[in-house]
Amino acid sequence: MSKLGDLGARLHRGEVGYDFIKNRKIWYGLSILITITAIVGLAVRGLNMGIEFQGGALFTTPKTSVSVTDARHYAEEASGHDAIVQEVGNDTLRIQIGGLDTEQSDKVRSQLAKDLKVEESKIAAELVGPSWGEQIANKAWTGLGIFMILVVIYLAIAFEWRMAVAALIALIHDLTITVGIYSLVGFEVTVGTVIGLLTILGYSLYDTVVVFDSLKEGTKGITKQTRWTYSEIANRSINGTLVRSINTTVVALLPVAGLLFIGGGVLGAGMLNDISLSLFVGLAAGAYSSIFIATPLVADLKEREPAMKALRKRIATKRAAAAAKGESLDADESVDGDDGFADEAETAVVGQRGRRGRAAEPRG
Amino acid sequence: MAAPKKGRRPAGGQGRPGRALALILIAMVALTGGMFWSGHTTPRLGIDLAGGTSITLKAKAEPGKEDAVNETNMNTAVGIIDRRVNGLGVSEAEVQTQGRENIIVNIPRGVDEKQAREQVGTTAQLYFRPVLTWAPSTPTPSGSPTPSGSAKPSAGSSASPSAEATKQGGQGTTASPSASATTQGRAVSDALRKAPSPGATTPGGTASPDAKSPNPTGAPTPPADPATAKLEQQFAALDCTPKAEKSGDKKAVPNPARTVPPEQPTVACGTEGDAKYILGPAEVSGKDVDDAQGVFDQQRGMWIVNMEFTDEGSKKFQKITSKLSTQQEPQNQFAIVLDGEVVSAPSVRTTLSANAEISGNFTQKSAQDLGNILSYGALPLSFDTQSVDTVTAALGGEQLEAGLIAGGIGLALVVLYLVVYYRGLSLIALLSLAASALLTYVIMSLLGPAIGFALNLPAVCGAIVAIGITADSFIVYFERIRDEVREGRTLRPAVERAWPRARRTILVSDFVSFLAAAVLFAVTVGKVQGFAFTLGLTTLLDVVVVFLFTKPLMTLLARTEFFGEGHAWSGLDPKRLGAKPPLRRSRRVSAPVDPKEA
């Protein structure tokens, strides 16, 4: 851990740093690849929608000695529908039967109680009409839409529209990846999943906003100096908040991991598990996107501004002049290693040097 | 909070951090005290943790009546469903709207959930039935003026003829019994209950009972008809007094009239449980009422209820009132029967048609309530059962336990990480987390009785997830402080300098998080809403705790030797953090430090 503290110090001083901006095309590419995979997966495999979305019944029995196979047999016989039976926790059975309406499910429940030799009142039942899930999903979509609009407006006011756009793209990116993973792995989508997914909204942006905040602070009065381009400062902002990002992600993931462990390990299935699973996936994607996608996107958009273009030109000229005078340091080698962490001696930070055809490395 | 100071002396006033800390400590003590004082020392548990049945209904928008699904109608429906469910003898059943078109009915365990479900789903039935007779309910007609002891026998005798005569169809002639010599006392007392008393109702004087023939239909008095006898028997046996008087306003009143078809006479109870009635067949149904509202009559200075009938309704109403107005007490009354309970039984003084007015001892609320009932009694809304969730107590307990364990594990992991990474500094984080947890717990407990907040499983998840958000605020602040220390500042100025920057970051990110929670809470339903609520609450508390607790505490601790001097275990050791004096001047564009200076 103190290694991380050390790293924090070095990141702060700029002794180490990873050039997130320079390599952004790699990350864009990677993200596009993942996103396409997710979309294809979604299109081909679809989502494994749970009972709440199809309509049907979910029974949770008390402890019983009846085996899963027998229980499925009973359930299918009683209902005339396919049943999914899982054993969860301590000999408890979780029986899902799709397509039942609330009337039928009463009968099925009584029948199951008889077959499994348990009291009917001890069987927990969740009966869901087919339109309920649709309603939840619709509301979730509405919420998602409203939230996105509000947050874009807010970010555009508090920061600027470029950041709002970048944050939005990062957010959509996170959601797509999460949904894609659900589709590819075939996890069941329940109301818990939707809750988790919606929480990612806040979290993903939360993370992004912290980086943006630092970026905004760092770029105050940027046009009045000729040392750093916007992209360089953006990169520095990412590096500067890297320790925080890592800490935040770890701290956010730890409770979720606790939920996942308990939800999956002890209860076997259910709300806790569903929420924490989608959160876990989404948080990881969110941490990645705020560093690798959102901020580089802002830099990209920002560099298109005339003022920034002019700044870049001035800096390039200045650096070229400096290089001509031989004052520049050994910039070129220092950026070679992508992994700045490994290379302590070379105090390399950042730069658009190669791609933008600038010669110099940011040095004081 | 303390303004950023460039000087060596931190934060203008020495008392400031103390004041903020005192403020939040007082608030915490007060809230905790309030919690113990109110006796709600644990959060109210939702159905999925405590066990019970939760039913979700969705209003169906009927063709041509799309705008019928509105707030007023939904609230009326909630009132009616609440009355029904609680009328089953359920105590503490809870009915509330959720979102724009959903009603959630939560019934604690120990209730016949099938019966509850049946009651919940059907549309409310509103009828106008002529009153044949009535009596205060035995055994103790509390509150209402009790008529003479002869009330019961006479009530029985007066009821019998009409009951027989009115069997032909819904609009059947109301037989007014010739032997209807009932006591005046009843009408008065009834009127005092809710409906207008003859005195109050009739400023201009009621149509005198003897003005017209008291017996228009001329129905003979058929004695001892079996059906009538049965009705009388029922009436005599009917006990409308709330069974469980101790359970406050939740009552269990038998409700025989609900199952009787409208075209048959029946016995019924008043909603207050202090009166019982024998009622003739329904003459007008709720569908015939076009609109009704409680309004304030400026001229007379009293609350009245105005009713408007539909075309068909006015004809029916005209018919019934023309008959009733010629009757004597109590047969000149018609009962407004909602779901088998008599809501009100005003007497009629003249023939009325399209527009009618009920006057009496109304308060604003009772007038408006009656107006609502008349308008929406036969609900323009019908409901679909969306989901029924029955959780056994065992499963609920298991889920609660799992949630608590998960929260414990999550918290322990976070604490462990903070301690290892931030060392002494983690003390502040831990105290802040504890303060946050305490506030969350107390407020959740208090919100139970206050706004009906119930802690359900998603809400527990929300609280666990919030651990991360809360801890992150400290991380943001600590990292800022460390950055300042790395710039070469000593701790006290570092703490103050770091704060404004950290504060902005915390506010901005918490705002985004809160926005997400608020939007979700506003537009979603059910479990999602419970989750959003906790998330929003904890985000707010996070801001409060960071501002009033973490920051002042940090300021105070920065004055101690252990932290102020950057002890190796304080987490703020300048050497460990790689601080580099001297202080750099320019911070405008934070840029990599010149390696030459390193």
Structural features, described:
The complex is a heterodimer of chains A (364) and B (598). Chain A has two domains: 2-49 and 132-308, Multidrug efflux transporter AcrB transmembrane fold (Up-down Bundle); 56-128, Alpha-Beta Plaits (2-Layer Sandwich). Chain A is 66% helix and 7% strand. Chain A has 14 helices and six strands. Chain A has helices at 2-13, 24-45, 51-54, 68-79, 102-116, 130-158, 161-185, 191-218, 230-240, 242-266, 271-302, 306-324, 331-334, 353-356; strands spanning 48-49, 56-60, 83-88, 92-98, 124-128, 188-189. In chain A, helix 6 (130-158) packs parallel to helix 8 (191-218), helix 7 (161-185) runs antiparallel to helix 11 (271-302) and helix 8 packs parallel to helix 11 (271-302). The longest helix of chain A has 32 residues, at 271-302. Chain A starts with a helix and ends in an 8-residue tail after the last helix. Mean pLDDT of chain A is 76; it is low at 328-364. Chain B is α+β, with helices and mostly antiparallel strands and 598 residues long. Chain B folds into two domains: 15-46 and 392-584, Up-down Bundle (Multidrug efflux transporter AcrB transmembrane fold); 123-243 and 254-378, no CATH class. In chain B, 47% of the residues lie in helices and 15% in strands. Chain B has 17 helices and 13 strands. Chain B has a five-stranded mixed barrel, surrounded by four helices. A four-stranded antiparallel β-sheet of chain B has the order 2-3-1-13. The longest helix of chain B has 33 residues, at 491-523. Chain B is elongated, with a radius of gyration of 34 Å. Chain B starts with 14 loop residues before the first helix and ends in a 21-residue tail after the last helix. Chains A and B meet through helix 1, strand 5, helix 6, helix 8 and helix 9 of A and strand 13, helix 11, helix 13, helix 14 and helix 15 of B.
